[in-house]
Amino acid sequence: MYGLKIALILAAGFMAIAMNVSAAEKIPKLANGKPDFSGIWQTTSAADYDLEPHSNRKDAPPGAGIIEGGTIPYLPKALEQKKKNFAARETDDPRIKGYTLGVPRGIYYPEPFQIFQRARDLNLVFQFGHTVRTIHTNGTEHPDDPNDWWLGDSRGHWEGDTLVVDAKHFNDKTWLDRAGNFHSDALHVVERWKYLDPNTIEYKATLEDANVYSRPWNISVILHRHREKSFQLIEDYRFTLDYDQYYPPKPDKK
Amino acid sequence: MKNIHKQLHITTSTLLAWLLLLTPVSSWSAETGKADQAKAAAPAQPRANPGIEQEKTVPKLESGKWTGSRLADGQPDVQGHWSNTIANHNNFTDPQGGVPGETTARSRSLPPRDQRAPSRVSDTPDGQVPFQPWALEKVKEFQANFNNPVKPEYVEPLARCAPAGVPKSLYWHGYEVAQYPGYIVFFFNSGTRIVHLDNKPHLADNIKLWNGDSRGHWEGNTLVVDVTNQNGKALFGRTGEFISENGHIQERYIFSNDGQRYNYEAIITDSTVYTRPFKTTIPARKWTEKDAPNGWHFETSLAKHAGKQPILEREERICNENNGGFGLGAAETKKSL
């Protein structure tokens, strides 16, 4: 009886190990053995409405927030700016002009993005604006003293099956969400991308910006793979909508 | 902190597009200045950097077997940096003939038509798009108003940073081609085009897109792409030729087996606008780390890394957001930090 118990416990243990192994094996991999994040991804979280915990309001569903520790550690002056942004969010959110969402906002914005991955890089094409963010994974470094970019400069490396991305050289023109949370051009983002299972990515990021925050802070969202039949990105160059009506020429009305 | 106005690649192109509208003389000399200087210095020699107009002829390339290298998924490997070889979007049917209404010294000294690159319309006797009368009138109207666009519809949409669309993206700046299992992706200077190689059906007819909806497959050395769902808004160039939202483009990208060239041959069909389908041909060449970046066809930089081999990379392509004040030095509001 005792022996049977031990056998059962051992069997259960082996099964658990075997299941873990098979889950790990099922993660898509590139030929070089690194995880392959190719696919079309989207979060179901309400992060883009407000990264911080918030009740429902006219322009947002309620949300528990995605920040470790609850709120963003703004410096006092920056908190004043955030409040101004919040008050003006209906007009000042760069999203309204169709502008590039930036990093990390593009990742948790509620429209799909597609990852095209090779050994040397990942190109992220965001449906919103159809902008392209390149994450280099070929051992290259941040350039010396480049321009400030809308999407920064992203260099990645692998820590086991986790893709760790260091992103900096941003401009200060993007927001972090619709609630006016923001950053300066000193923003530095460290992302960690990891498969939880073959159709789910855990995305974590640490945001650091000495001009705006009193300390680095962390966010975390889950990204789901779009598995609908024939799903594809549909380009959304919405900054053209104000002048779309003028093209193409049409026959004169008689 | 580096100001975005230093971002030359992108703002320069849009700035030039606008300067062309506002002051055609100065913008033209700015865009082709290097080439003009080279020409003046050594008129009889081939130019080291021939500017945008690299070549005057279109080489012959036939569809057939692919004998070059392949990717792991079996696709012919055509990844890398490419551009057209004859001219930009100034003029669709006389690619080296200048923009409509141009009255610069350069336009007065153009070589005869038969010494300039042929029309991109390659199967009509006159090299012109077979427009229906109403559509031809619209093209003429656009050309007559191009230099003084008194209505929004006379502004070439690329000057507003709109995606260049099909086929204009292929004769705008240089671009990168990347391949993945099931996809070939064109990272253009203005817009990104994803060609699906997996036989999924086209989008519903009523979805209209700047770059259309592309379904492709390989036939030997030739990438065959079917393009539907166009919004018709991109125009074919500063000469105003266009397709409507009912148009259909059947493309063939015929690659040379050395991987250095391709010819784009497309049949453009649209019974709303044309009297019959016509064919357009656009020659292209590849650029590698052996070539020097030239500010238009080939705009890359060398990555910083510990090794010795040159690694090419491109900077982000973002136009609309950087086009504030049309690149003419828009003031930035100061945040209270």
Q: How many extended strands of chain A? A: 9
Identify the CATH architecture of the largest domain in chain A.
Beta Barrel
Give the N-terminus to C-terminus distance of chain B in angstroms. 14 Å
Q: CATH class of the largest domain in chain A, anyone?
A: Mainly Beta
SSE order of chain B: HHEHHEEEEEEEEEE
Rounded mean pLDDT of chain A is 92
Mean pLDDT of chain B: 85
From the spread of the alpha carbons, the general shape of chain A counts as globular
Distance between the termini of chain A: 95 Å
- Here the CATH topology of the largest domain in chain A equals Lipocalin
How large is the radius of gyration of chain B? 20 Å
Give structural notes.
The complex is a heterodimer of chains A (254) and B (337). Chain A is α+β, with helices and mostly antiparallel strands and 254 residues long. Helix content of chain A is 18%, strand content 25%. Chain A folds into 2 domains: 1-28; 31-228, Lipocalin, CATH 2.40.128. Chain A has a 9-stranded mixed β-barrel with strand order 1-2-3-4-5-6-7-8-9. The mean pLDDT of chain A is 92. Chain B has one domain (4-327). Chain B has helices spanning 8-22, 24-41, 105-108, 133-145; strands at residues 80-84, 175-180, 183-187, 192-196, 213-219, 222-228, 248-255, 261-269, 278-287, 301-302, 312-313. Chain B has a 9-stranded mixed beta barrel with strand order 1-2-3-4-5-6-7-8-9. In chain B, strands 10-11 form a two-stranded antiparallel ribbon. In chain B, a hairpin with a 5-residue loop joins strand 7 (248-255) and strand 8 (261-269). The radius of gyration of chain B is 20 Å and the shape is globular. Chain B starts with 7 loop residues before the first helix and ends in a 24-residue tail after the last strand. Residues 3-48 and 325-334 of chain B have low confidence and may be disordered. Classes of the chains: A alpha+beta (254), B alpha+beta (337). Chains A and B meet through helix 2, strand 2 and strand 4 of A and helix 4, strand 3 and strand 4 of B.
